[in-house]
Amino acid sequence: MAEETKFEPRIVAFLCNWCTYAGADLAGTGRNQYQANVRVIKLPCTGGIDPLFLIKAFERGADGILVSGCHPGDCHYNSGNYHARRRWNVFRPLLEFCGINPERIQFSWVSAAEGGKWVETINGVVDTVRALGPFEGYQKINAVGSDASGEAATSGDTG
Amino acid sequence: MIEALRKKAEELLKNKTVDVVYGYGEGSVPERTRPVFITKPEDVNKLTWNKYCVYNLTTYLKKQESRKLGKPAIVVKGCDAKTITVLIKESQIKREDIYIIGVTCTGIGDPPATKCKACDVNTPLIYDELIGEKIGNKEFSFEERYAELDEYEKLSEQEKWDFWQKQFEKCIKCYACSSICPLCFCDRCIVDKNQPQWIDPSAHPRGNLSWNVTRAYHLAGRCINCEECQRVCPADIPLNLLNKKLAKETEKNFKYRSGYNVDDELAMATYKEDDNQDFIK
Amino acid sequence: MEKTLKKEKLNSLITGLKDKGYKTIAPKKDNNLITLCEIQEADEIHFDHVQTNNSIKEYFLPKTEKILSYTIEKTKVSIEEPEGFAVKSVVFGSRPCDAASLPIMDKVFNWDCTDKFWIERREAITIVTIACDKCDSYCFCTSVCLAPDAKQGSDVLLTKISDDEYLVETETEKGEGLIKELETVFSEPPSGTPDRQVATVEKKFEIDKVKPWLDENFVHKIWAEFSTKCIGCGACTFVCPTCHCFDIVDECTMSKGDRVKNWDGCQFKMFTLHTSGHNPRSTQDQRWRQRIMHKFKYYVEKFDNILCVGCGRCSRVCPADMNISEMLEIISTDEGQPEPVSKE
Fold first, then answer.
1. How many separate helices (H) and strands (E) can be counted in chain A?
2. Euclidean distance between CA atoms C92 and C26, whole angstroms
């Protein structure tokens, strides 16, 4: 159990149903442990992940985000991940241009067979974001104006 | 040039080639012009052309009120003409449904607009009739095209954040940026959708950040750099920097420049198997 | 009460206000904008402008404001109302047109529902206006029964009488109180008649002719002709000191949320969209007509005031160069009979 003073990052992972989610599942059935900072959101395909989802995650208090799907060529819908990759190629620099550290939004390809890679990837994200510290910039703007969503996020409603 | 423009407009209206000419007319002060919609041949003297013709009139192609006037001829500068290429590509208009009166332009605004600095479309790339002497279009390097971004790109992460927070703080959420944009043609904008409410409608820092980032992102690989959003912003937010950043990334990663070639695949509607993925684990 | 204020005393005035616990809001230059915003020192104040880009309205009706917060726990809903939103302040150096917008809007905010946010701020904020010594072609205060040195809404009115001196006139008890609080900053009024430097604003139209025309011409081709170029952005309504429409939204999660009041404007097509999909003002000419009708007919009928102070901001800011005084000029000189259009 972490000490109260120690910062534990809150990571939101947007995973595709067919590859990475299955990969994370495999890690689970294989009893491979990974850090519990991650909240997984399962979606059909990375091609359907609107960048607004990522902004919303920050608005709800995420310190870091992982978006992960099938390796190129493996998409269940043939080309969803290729389209997603195009978008990330421009969205990531846009956020960086606005002063958001790109390390806070990471991307990976993890297949259904790569339970080990999942563990490694998510541990990597958690460690990187832990080192970066809390996303203070966003927390500040979450608290301004209307503070509801920011508070809800930091009080940790597990639903 | 004005005479040639008026003559062409008169001819088009008389021959009933078009029902209306979207052009520039005199504004309320000498330093301004305004969009005019000429439907009668005898009114063509209302058309004008000068360095204050800043508007990108193609924005009226998306408006039901102007479309109601019938088949348009539209006066476009080189930058504006690129919009038409995108609109055709995105199936918003058909080439044969509009008549394009291209005007050669050596820069507008006083002081000249930023977009005019590295302008490589003094002569429009697409037109039915060209008004003014044809100018050989210059060529600029990748670095020259995006030179205005340099001073912002080299800021530290914190400086960038602070800079944009200060800019977005001014936003009053009037949405003039998207209303004027000829490529923001959705009947219902994401910001108007509230189930779920993706973008907070309030003009507080959180809502302003998600709005301004989303507006820019929805134009990724599409914006043709007419700078209209920035011109109309009552809060003086340098919106075009965001657009330009996205254009730069699109060109860098996909070798695509919006509005230059009607045969190019739209950058964000296609992909290549070997697209850059060096940031993906 | 009459006094004078020397420019060299501005520093003492602003520090004096701070010492007495006032927040000071004044015009300040920020890049290409002149903004009414909070200032700390007299040096920050910008004088040499016709008009600030933002209006005084946002200090009484902010662009976004929380009106309550709520928490839902099982079956219990608890509501928390905001406090401390009215901060004792002075708006220094706003224009007479801006100040005049306040008593006009008092009527609507004290109408069937009294708006405590507006009313408490009105009590907390003192308005020190500087009469205009210059104007531009967009100004038309004199056409709407005001003047570059109009007193309506100001607690204190400053008028330039020389390059470094203002005549100070108090218009209300609140203004008098403020001057008394900072008595040492002000000098005695000059003997004789001071040379008031006030701009001459050209009268552009006869306001008396506007309402009768509007009464007759709800249907007229001019609405569409004039507004084809309107892009429906709503910037005019947001910069307007008298446009006061707002929207109320909840920004919330499952268990808690804020009820927020945000500016809204009649120029947006969503403004009147019904849930059913029907939109009573479906085209831009209807929305443009609404703006004119509300300002020069409906508000007059309801509250006996024109809802326009002639500041000209809407025309300055309009991306398509729609000019409201030009429209009113056309209206006030139109002699023709109503010209119904076939489709409406």
1. 6, 4
2. 5
Residue A142 lies in a domain: no
Quote the Cα angle for C82-C87-C92, to 5°: 145
Contacts of C260 in chain B (CB under 8 A): 201-202
A141 lies in some domain: no
Q: What CATH number does residue A128 fall under?
A: 3.40.50
How many angstroms separate the most distant Cα atoms in chain C? 74
Q: Contact at 8 Å (CB) between A40 and A24?
A: yes
Instruction: Tell me if A140 is assigned to some domain.
Output: no
**Phi and psi at residue C134, to the nearest 5°:** -150, 165
Whether C163 and C125 have beta carbons less than 8 Å apart is answered as no
Q: Per the CB < 8 Å rule, is C254 touching A159?
A: yes
The pLDDT, as a whole number, for residue A147 is 41
Which of C66, C254, C255 comes nearest A146 by C-beta? C66
- The pLDDT of residue C343: 43
Please give the residue of chain A at the shortest CA–CA distance from C67.
Answer: A146
Q: In this complex, do A149 and C69 lie within 8 Å of one another by their Cβ atoms?
A: no
- Say yes or no for a CB contact (<8 Å) between C258 and A146: yes
Which residues, in sequence order, are bridge partners of residue B34?
Answer: B25
Inter-chain CB proximity C251 and A159 less than 8 Å: no
* Phi, psi (rounded to 5 degrees) for B99: -115, 125
| Residues of A contacting chain C (CB within 8 angstroms) | 60, 145-149, 151-152, 157, 159
Quick check: C265 and B174 CB within 8 A?
Answer: yes
Query: Minimal Cα–Cα distance from B275 to chain C, Å?
Result: 38
Chain C residues in contact with B170 by the CB 8 A cut-off are 33
Rounded distance between C-alpha atoms, residue C299 and residue C305, angstroms: 6
Sequence-ordered list of residues with C-beta below 8 angstroms from that of C78, at least 6 positions apart, any chain: C70, C71
Do the chains contact at B64 and C283, CB–CB below 8 Å? yes
User: Which candidate, C30, A77, C183, A94, places its Cα nearest to that of B243?
Assistant: A94
Distance CA B171, CA B235 (A): 6
Of B174, B192, B204, the CB nearest to C238: B174
pTM of the model: 0.90
Q: CA–CA separation, C252 vs B272, rounded Å?
A: 41
- Helix count (H) and strand count (E) of chain C? 11, 11
User: Tens of pLDDT along A87-100?
Assistant: 999 999 999 999 99
Summarised one tens digit per residue, pLDDT across range B229-272 is 999 999 999 999 999 999 999 999 999 999 999 899 999 999 99
Which chains touch C (3+ CB pairs under 8 A)?
Answer: A, B
CB contact under 8 A, B28 and C137: yes
Tell me whether residue A36 is in a domain: yes
Q: Do B175 and C263 touch (CB under 8 A)?
A: no
C-alpha dihedral, A142 to A9 to A55 to C79, nearest 10°: -30
Any A CB within 8 A of C258 CB: yes
Please give the structure tokens belonging to residue C38.
Answer: 């909070």
Domain count, chain A: 1
Residues of B in contact with A82 (CB under 8 A): 271-273, 275
Determine the 3-state secondary structure of C242 from DSSP.
coil
| Those residues with Cβ within 8 angstroms of residue C242's Cβ, 6 or more apart along the chain or in another chain | C57, C101, C104, C105, C295, C307, C308, C309
CA distance C317 to chain B (A): 6
> What pLDDT band is residue C194 in, cutting at 50, 70 and 90?
confident
- Cis peptide bond N-terminal to C62, omega within 30: no
Residues within 8 A of A (CB atoms), B 145-164 only: 152-153, 157-164
**Contact by Cβ (8 Å): B12, B5:** no
Q: What is the pLDDT of residue A148?
A: 38
